[in-house]
Amino acid sequence: SGIDFEIIIIDDGSPDGTQEIAEQLEKIYGSDKILLRPRPRKLGLGTAYIHGMKHATGNFIVIMDADLSHHPKFIPEFLRKQKEGNFDIVSGTRYKGNGGVYGWDLRRKLISRGANFLTQVLLRPGASDLTGSFRLYRKEVLQKLMEKCVSKGYVFQMEMIVRARQLGYTIGEVPISFVDRVYGESKLGGNEIVSFLKGLLTLFATT
Questions:
Q1: SS3 per residue for the chain
Q2: Which domains are assigned to the chain?
Q3: For residue 46, which of 10, 144, 179, 199 sits 20 to 30 Å off, Cα-Cα?
Q4: For residue range 156-200, what is the model confidence (pLDDT) as tens digits?
């Protein structure tokens, strides 16, 4: 690609062999390209971002799921979009253009669409996909947002965009295809839905 890059893998002691595979990749591509930064147990998404940022040497950080639900083929499009509009953030969207979701049952799709619709109505964030996590950030913008964000779980991604708008950062969007993981399970139960609604109302009251 001609782009100078590094891949930082944060593994929170997951039982699925992530760390072992990452170690194999490190041997193949070298420790200057594959940086394995494991943690002993699950400490949450926000702290994983902070942990990864400490080790990132580039000007831009792309955050994505390591199970290939987010396909790396979209990264060049993120970079093109950023250059085109000099954006602070480029967010992958499942809800615009030819974006979409594959592998979810109807319940999961309805919950995701419903959550996104509620968020659009209450917060008017100026971005079409608030709960996705496939995004490119300027490093200093990501650092600033991490200082401001207080949410956990599913609300965290949403707060990142809402706070970005509040602080006057610019956001571009790239349509992406999200493919649900083939192995393992995505957990989305009643507790997560309740905590999402609580977080949404908190953001509505404070922004």
A1: CCCCCCEEECCECCCCCHHHHHHHHHHHHCCCCEEECCECCCCCHHHHHHHHHHHCCCCEEEECCCCCCCCHHHHHHHHHHHHHHCCCEEEEECCCCCCEEECCCHHHHHHHHHHHHHHHHHHCCCCCCCCCCCEEEEHHHHHHHHHHCCCCCHHHHHHHHHHHHHCCCCEEEEECEEECCCCCCCCCCHHHHHHHHHHHHHHHHHC
A2: 1-58 (no CATH), 63-206 (3.90.550.10)
A3: 179
A4: 888 899 999 999 999 999 999 988 765 545 555 566 677 777 878
